[in-house]
Design a protein that fits this description.
122 residues; mainly alpha; Arc Repressor Mutant, subunit A; three-stranded antiparallel beta sheet; 7 helices; 54% helix; globular
């Protein structure tokens, strides 16, 4: 890590200075990685995305999407139709997250295998 960043600084103070703190801040939402995973194949409408999410409320998904939109990782496109249609998709920067999602998938599966081998203390 960059030694110029003070050890007692907060994650917020490190945002934009430390790559780890910046990434942590951007994907800090409980559902951010899963949402980005579901958007990898192309635009998804709000209700469709909500159906894909495990037991997520409308309000929670809305908050998570607004955060991802404001950080520039997800794009919101509203169509002027009746009823109104809104789609979400990854931005160019959001698509650059794909290798991270793939790495998380591989690591997550390795951990599932570890648990299934009886290595769980849970």
């Amino acid at each position: 890590m960059n030694q110029a960043i003070e050890a007692d600084s907060t994650v917020e103070e490190r945002f934009g200075k430390c790559p780890y703190a910046t990434a942590q801040s951007l994907i800090a939402g409980k559902w951010a990685v899963l949402i980005m995973h579901y958007l990898e194949d192309g635009p998804v409408r709000f209700n469709e995305l909500q159906r894909l999410m495990p037991k997520m409320t409308h309000a929670t998904l809305s908050v998570q999407l607004k955060s991802l939109v404001s950080s520039g990782l997800v794009e919101r496109k509203q169509y002027e139709s009746l009823p109104p249609k809104v789609e979400y998709s990854l931005t160019d920067m959001g698509r650059k997250f794909h290798p991270v999602i793939e790495a998380l998938k591989v690591w997550g599966q390795a951990y599932i295998d570890y648990l299934n081998a009886g290595n769980s203390s849970a």
